[in-house]
């Protein structure tokens, strides 16, 4: 059975990637790093699977496009 995708916070993303906060937000703006998702009124996080995918191959990472099933 597949485990649900965890949401991780900025501190964890910084530790896993080795990037600075400003570099992460610059890369998000460029479209070369996973965007955060809103988890509360004042909080945001990232899907752990997206960060893992970026860490595995940062140069080739691209956002996963939603599949249009034609309905």
Distance between the termini: 28 Å
Q: Can you tell me the number of structural domains?
A: 1
Main beta-sheet annotation: 3 strands, antiparallel
Strand sequence of the main sheet, in spatial order? 1-3-2
Helix content: 25-40%
According to DSSP, the number of beta strands is: 3
Nearest-integer average pLDDT: 88
User: What is the alpha-carbon Rg in Å?
Assistant: 13 Å
Protein name: AlpA family transcriptional regulator
Organism: Methylosinus trichosporium (strain ATCC 35070 / NCIMB 11131 / UNIQEM 75 / OB3b)
Pfam families: Phage_AlpA
Q: Mind explaining what this structure looks like?
A:
The chain has three helices and three strands. It has 71 residues and is of the alpha+beta class. It has one domain (7-56). A three-stranded antiparallel beta sheet has the order 1-3-2. Strand 2 (37-38) and strand 3 (44-47) form a beta hairpin.
């Amino acid at each position: 059975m597949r485990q649900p995708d965890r949401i991780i916070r900025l501190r964890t993303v910084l530790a896993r990637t080795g990037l600075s906060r400003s570099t992460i937000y610059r890369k998000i703006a460029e479209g070369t790093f996973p965007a955060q998702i809103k988890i509360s009124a004042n909080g945001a996080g990232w899907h752990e699977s997206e960060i893992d995918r970026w860490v595995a191959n940062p140069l080739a990472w691209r956002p996963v496009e939603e599949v249009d099933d034609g309905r």
